Amino acid sequence: MSKKWKITVPGSTANLGPGFDSIGLSLSLYLELTVSLQDEWEIIHLSEGLPKEFELKNHLIYNVANETAKRYNKVMPSCRIEMTSQLPFARGIGSSAAAIVAGIEIANLLCDLQLSVQDKLNLSSQMEGHPDNATASVLGGLTISSMDEEGNVDTIHVHDLEASFVLFIPEVMLKTCEARDVLPSSFKRQYAVRASSGANMLAAALVLKDYKRIGKYMESDLFHEPFRADLIPHYHEIREEAKKAGAFGTALSGAGPTMISIIPNSIGEQFVEKMKERFPTHKIVLTKPDQRGVHVEEISSVSKIR
């Protein structure tokens, strides 16, 4: 008999405006994997948004699982992975962070690493390069994090935000590396003070669950959005129309090109309908924060055919 597991990882949004590389929020949109041991590696993509053809050696989950096992002096066994995903690639919804968290979880299971939550936070953030999306996918809810030079992550975890979120997902892709290329390498002191004060106020408002202030400071970013706005389809129009329709505030989701609005729970469906009419070239998705984070379930035992 061989075991079979289901791994569910939430996607995420990062920054929420000025919380650059440090604030993350899990979303109820998921990467799901069914994993079982077998003699050779096999990864099968079942969702339309996932590439049908790829080289195993270049697959992020394969590489992360093997790297995780190697760090703990283990050899990663071969396995079969069937994947579905609600997270379009290169759209700013944490697809790479979710894949990294999934790869770590596969190694943890199949190599019996017995990783702690802190181990998972450190490993995923180190591999992602920053802790915003990764910590949100591991823990669920909202995370405010920092990572020191040695790769140790410290996280404040906030549950139960009483608000909904709406994603404006364009058809175009934007890789994070491309979005980083337009950012300045330094800021003048007074500019940096203004930018960091907005980030501080956003973090405080999130902890207090002061939704009007959350929306206000989501739209106060000076670190990256002014420089990325021209890369984002209908950036200014989406912010304006969302505010008119009742949003507390709107910001880029991660590096973009997706944008995200925080709205009262009570206006969700009507808000989405208005935005669909106004922005027909975007996919408009209503969602809420995921509260569970990465989750593993043993789903069955499979008899091997001899």
From TrEMBL:
<comment type="function">
    <text>Catalyzes the ATP-dependent phosphorylation of L-homoserine to L-homoserine phosphate.</text>
</comment>
<keyword id="KW-0067">ATP-binding</keyword>
<protein>
    <recommendedName>
        <fullName>Homoserine kinase</fullName>
        <ecNumber>2.7.1.39</ecNumber>
    </recommendedName>
</protein>
<keyword id="KW-0963">Cytoplasm</keyword>
<dbReference type="InterPro" id="IPR006204">
    <property type="entry name" value="GHMP_kinase_N_dom"/>
</dbReference>
<dbReference type="Pfam" id="PF08544">
    <property type="entry name" value="GHMP_kinases_C"/>
</dbReference>
<keyword id="KW-0547">Nucleotide-binding</keyword>
<feature type="domain" description="GHMP kinase C-terminal">
    <location>
        <begin position="203"/>
        <end position="280"/>
    </location>
</feature>
<dbReference type="InterPro" id="IPR014721">
    <property type="entry name" value="Ribsml_uS5_D2-typ_fold_subgr"/>
</dbReference>
<dbReference type="GO" id="GO:0009088">
    <property type="term" value="P:threonine biosynthetic process"/>
</dbReference>
<dbReference type="Pfam" id="PF00288">
    <property type="entry name" value="GHMP_kinases_N"/>
</dbReference>
<comment type="similarity">
    <text>Belongs to the GHMP kinase family. Homoserine kinase subfamily.</text>
</comment>
<dbReference type="InterPro" id="IPR020568">
    <property type="entry name" value="Ribosomal_Su5_D2-typ_SF"/>
</dbReference>
<keyword id="KW-0418">Kinase</keyword>
<dbReference type="InterPro" id="IPR000870">
    <property type="entry name" value="Homoserine_kinase"/>
</dbReference>
<dbReference type="GO" id="GO:0004413">
    <property type="term" value="F:homoserine kinase activity"/>
</dbReference>
<keyword id="KW-0791">Threonine biosynthesis</keyword>
<dbReference type="InterPro" id="IPR013750">
    <property type="entry name" value="GHMP_kinase_C_dom"/>
</dbReference>
<comment type="pathway">
    <text>Amino-acid biosynthesis; L-threonine biosynthesis; L-threonine from L-aspartate: step 4/5.</text>
</comment>
<keyword id="KW-0808">Transferase</keyword>
<dbReference type="GO" id="GO:0005737">
    <property type="term" value="C:cytoplasm"/>
</dbReference>
<feature type="domain" description="GHMP kinase N-terminal">
    <location>
        <begin position="60"/>
        <end position="141"/>
    </location>
</feature>
<dbReference type="InterPro" id="IPR036554">
    <property type="entry name" value="GHMP_kinase_C_sf"/>
</dbReference>
<keyword id="KW-0028">Amino-acid biosynthesis</keyword>
<dbReference type="GO" id="GO:0005524">
    <property type="term" value="F:ATP binding"/>
</dbReference>
